[in-house]
Amino acid sequence: MSQGLPAAGSVLQRSVAAPGNQPQPQPQSPEDDDRKVRRREKNRVAAQRSRKKQTQKADKLHETEYECLEQENTMLRREIGKLTEELKHLTEALKEHEKMCPLLLCPLNFVPVPPRPDPVAGCLPR
Q1: pTM for the whole thing?
Q2: Number of domains in the chain
Q3: What does the chain look like in DSSP terms, one character per residue?
Q4: Which of 10, 40, 75, 95 could pair covalently with 6 via S-S, beta carbons 3.0-4.6 A apart?
Q5: What is the mean pLDDT, run by run of 10 residues, along the chain of 126 residues?
């Protein structure tokens, strides 16, 4: 046997055999066909179950996210209400103060100020 050449029948020799020399698959028996059909059906059912589980998981995640956003929205609406009330109170306090403020009543400090628009009306949600 010469060096560098594979021995006849070795793994390397068989792996480089011509494609036409490959063994043909044996015809399947009815039992093999039945087994194949059962295996495919079982796989199909498992795939359906997996997809359903994945969909349910995504639905639950969306539901949780929705609930969280609803709670945040409610909190923000309450905060808007509180801030609106605070703005009304402070605006009223400013109007009362302007009536008696010595700096505003002094003729030397008097500079005509045009009337301001209602600050509360511009801040309320529409």
Answers
A1: 0.47
A2: 1
A3: --TTSPPTT-HHHHHT--GGGSPPPPPPPHHHHHHHHHHHHHHHHHHHHHHHHHHHHHHHHHHHHHHHHHHHHHHHHHHHHHHHHHHHHHHHHHHHHHHH-HHHH-TTT----PPPP-HHHHHS--
A4: 10
A5: 52 52 69 92 97 96 96 98 97 92 72 65 63
